[in-house]
Amino acid sequence: MNVILLGAPGAGKGTQATRISSRYNLPHISTGDIFRANIKNQTEIGVLAKSYIDKGQLVPDEVTCKIVENRLIEKDCENGYLLDGFPRTIAQAEVLEKFSKVDCVINIDIDFSFLMERLCGRRVCKNCGESYHVSTLNGKTSCEKCGGELYQRKDDNPETVQSRLNVYENQTAPLIDYYTRKGIIVNVAGAGTPEEVFALIVKALDSIK
Ligand code: AMP
To answer: How far apart are the first and last CA of the chain?
Structure first.
């Protein structure tokens, strides 16, 4: 099963991706995580990606598409994959179609007014990637799941978040229509608890398995 997870920054894609990946045994492929790993290792791609990510802009399509194309030919993707944060433009979706057939697009639908607060208060585990919000951490600085150190992503500041939300609206949201026309999208309300949202996603994915 080849699945795309679509949604605005802060909609909960990462949180849901971890759950989907473990329930359906699909490799979780997050282009954002791939870029962050490259930045950490100071690769050529990392240096380039950083210059866009720090401004809340998209990394150019050619670079991003090549990374995904190379990743999807790896053995663990043979029986399916879960793409998180890709595609983010119509051009990326068109390139993806050339090398893979998508079975289902889950769109996590959330009111924009929640996102600024969610993203600026987000803390992420350095080790396992789990996300938290400062309002529920009660001052804790380590991950409940693995004990890893929590940190604030550099692009989770008001100015960069605003730019990411604008980019989403202009360049990524048109994908909702694009996949609706193809008849493969399921819209899931993202305002509930992570468990409630996950239950809706499971219902959708079980029906196409
Ligand atoms: P994310 O972790 O998905 O929020 O991604 C963090 C940042 O990485 C984004 O704001 C973009 O700058 C970059 N990025 C991630 N995925 C893509 C993509 N599919 N196309 C272009 N840039 C991306």
So the answer is: 7
Q: Which of 28, 57, 69, 88 to mutate to test the pocket of ligand 1 (most atoms within 8 A of CB)?
A: 88
**75 alpha carbon – ligand 1 mean position (Å):** 24
Q: What is the mean pLDDT of residues 128-152?
A: 95
| pLDDT value of residue 34 | 97
Nearest one of 39, 107, 33, 42 to 71, comparing CA atoms? 33
Angle value at C-alpha 33, between 29 and 39, nearest 5 degrees: 140
CATH 3.40.50.300 fits 2-117+157-206, yes or no: yes
Ligand 1 centre to CA of 64 (Å) is 9
Per DSSP, which regions of 8-88 are E strands? 28-30, 81-84
Q: Is 123 a catalytic residue?
A: no
Over the stretch 28-55, which tens digit does the pLDDT of each residue have?
999 999 999 999 999 999 999 999 999 9
Check 50, 88, 118, 123 and give the catalytic one. Answer: 88
Strands 2-7 and 131-133: unpaired
pLDDT tens column, 179-201: 999 999 999 999 999 999 999 99
